[in-house]
Amino acid sequence: MKRIRFILLFWSVSFMTKAQTFHGIIFANTFDAKIGHSVNINYNKMLTEFAAIASANNMKIEQHYFRDFDYNKDKLMETLNNIQFSSQDIAFFYHTGHGGRATNDKTKWPQLALGDYDSDFVSLNRVLEILKQKSTRPQLIIVMSQSCNSESSSLTAKESISGGNTVLENSTSDNYQKLFKNLKGTIIVSSSSPGQYSYSSGVGSTFTNAWLKELQHIVSGNGEVNWNTLFERTKQRNAEILKHTDPNSYPQWEVNVTSTSGGDDDDDITIKTNSEVFVNDLLGLANTRNTEIERIRLVRPLLQKHFDNEFVKVQILGKNGKTIVERQSSERFLKRLSTTRRLVGLAVLEKKTNSNGKITFLKIHEIYKR
Amino acid sequence: MNTKLIFSLLIIVLLSAHGRVIAQPDEEVPLTDDDIKQFKERAGVMIDSFQDYLSIIGSKERPKEVKVYYADETLELFIRKGERVTMEVSSTRRTYPTRYPLKTYLQRLANLRYAKVEIKQAGIYHISNFYKVGENKYRAVASIFQQFCGYSRYGDRYVKRYCDVTKKTIEIYIYLMETWNGEKYWIVKLGDISVADTTPAY
Amino acid sequence: MYKFYILLAIWVFSNSIFAQTLKDGFNEEFLKMRVKQLDEFVKRFNYETDIEGNPIADRNNVQKRKGYIISLFDYELLINKSNDSLQKYNQFLDAVANPNAPVFLNYHDSNWYAVADCKVKLNGKLTKLRLVLQTEKDKKQNKHWVIRSVRADFLSLQPKKVDDSKFISPVSHELNFMDLHKITTEERANIVHYAPEDFQVDERNVFFYLIKTGQLQIEHVERIVYHFLQVPGFIFTVQHIERDSNNVGWLTSNLMPQTLTQKKTYKSSVLSLNQ
Q1: Neighbours of chain A (3+ CB pairs under 8 A)
Q2: Mutual orientation of helices A206-219 and A36-56 as an angle, nearest 10°?
Q3: Which of A74, B112, C236, C254 is most buried, judging by how many CB atoms fall within 10 Å of its CB?
Q4: Complex ipTM, two decimals?
Q5: Over 90: is that where the pLDDT of C1 sits?
């Protein structure tokens, strides 16, 4: 009987209902010799932010994250063509890498450089069109490109990286929902306008950092909660950073959204499922709907299921995707998760496995509610 | 005698080889403002966990196994795993607070002679700035508010016997550690807990 | 002046209609408004964070900053006061929130002090002592508080009545200073009198000595008042005020218009900073 209960526990949190899903799609050119470092930082930050957005909106998250060797046009087209949505889903596409435009380009949106040849370039608005034309279109589509980057030695690491909202207050979640779940339509944004460059430094790209910073301000209650305000403030912050480097570089956007009646009526943020089994199991361990004893007794089985041994290094990163705020062994990590009462989301930033598929190293970001 | 000494030294070397943290490093390693901000948020998460754990440990409905497990988790939040960490406890019936070693406090909390115990924390608290207090060491203080109520049982009903709201301060440390193989990393932990003020709650 | 009244009215009005939201027995709104730490006082004074601790995006809003500064006053200083007595608050707000030269408080400022009134035991007997502390940063950028002055009756080395007849005789050198022992026995009340005329007693030395020899212990701190001298033309104090209200915690307890000369006098007379 106990065995059956454990099996049920493993699957209970994976049981699919008609929950809304947040589809995070990231394509990051982390291998590039010139910009790879800051692209990697952007990748980590956006991945973390996607987890926070999904948690705050009480949505499941489906992760479609591609970097290193997977950053190519074939993978992009395959992902865009195969991805499936339900009508209440949200799709957020984020690209970070090189970009450009042709001299006779009729659209103002950049082409994303997914390879070295002209045929490897894909227009940002083509990404939007593909997503809009899916047989079941998601409720809200956002496509964002951080491109035309070039390293600038005159930029120093002054900009405070967005470090807020690992912890979600109910008011913050409400504001996140005003920006995502409660809207339908499309949003397209690029970090620079036609003919302009985008910039990055040792702490990531300026537009992405500015956008994340302003997003945190707005969801914390500092300002009007809408996309146009968010982008205007991002533009100002971006301009402030670049005033001595390139005052002629600024983002552009089009917001075509209307309000919905809102999604499900959960007042409190609760754990939602994740497409990845490992993350799902961790969220199950942290789920307070199970008793303390049940959660404690899950530690050993999960340790054996997922980790190579009990001493595997686990690093917990802050919201900036850079600062390691805690280091634990895999056993310590799972024990802590088995007692936490406020965890609502997880973002895996790096995971190494051996030939048996067991984890030998893990970097993760945790999202809590208050 | 020599054999015993050699054997002891060998044991120490073998234990160190398991990557235990052994010493604080000598040179200053910079910590950026952004890093401190990340640690400050982490400290907030740890304080929330600490308060949640106390309500489990003090609860009369949980089995001993659970309380012991949560007490161990509580100690992991503190410097030196709670060794030599003190917890001040106050009462509206006493003028000055009493200080206990943290482990002793947790044991006492688990065995209070009330039929029912409720420990709740306010959602609002404040963490001060972190200040550099030594080589590779920073310190801050958090102010939290905690309500404690104890009940007696009369038949099938519970009667409140004692209730107070206490403002407490928790020390928070960020310090640099170094493993046996020279790897350096910053760590955030909680420290001593003091009582700032206690008032009756009704 | 009317602008001050508007700010004051808004503050008073908003304080009185705060919803009594109780969450698990705590009044969350009161707890938000409560100035829980001195750090929090400084951040609100500087208009860096709001009452929930969130960073304020637009810190250049002068009127809003003034509103925050008013909210940090103990309201008993402001309610039912005459126009004349409220004038200084208006001037203070203008001085602090001057858009051309705004004043911000900083932990590292050299002109703010903590005055701690302590209960101490001197040779087993309970008595009082006042410590004045200031922040300091050492060469390694470590920060700490240091004792700038100490005041207590028992630290004074001055005799109750100076006896001019007691001195070390001008011919003592001819007597091999054989009477020196008397200054440590029957004449010890006058001990300071045997120092040169320009000798200044630093009561901290006496304090440190008594601590080191185990004769003096600090039992606990009874009260702390912070004195801020950074704002041009003003000195204000901050202390902890406890009441069942949302105007509670670390609040401005006194505001005094002071010129530079008056500030110097204040430092020596109130803070004993001539030590």
Answers
A1: B, C
A2: 20
A3: C236
A4: 0.85
A5: no
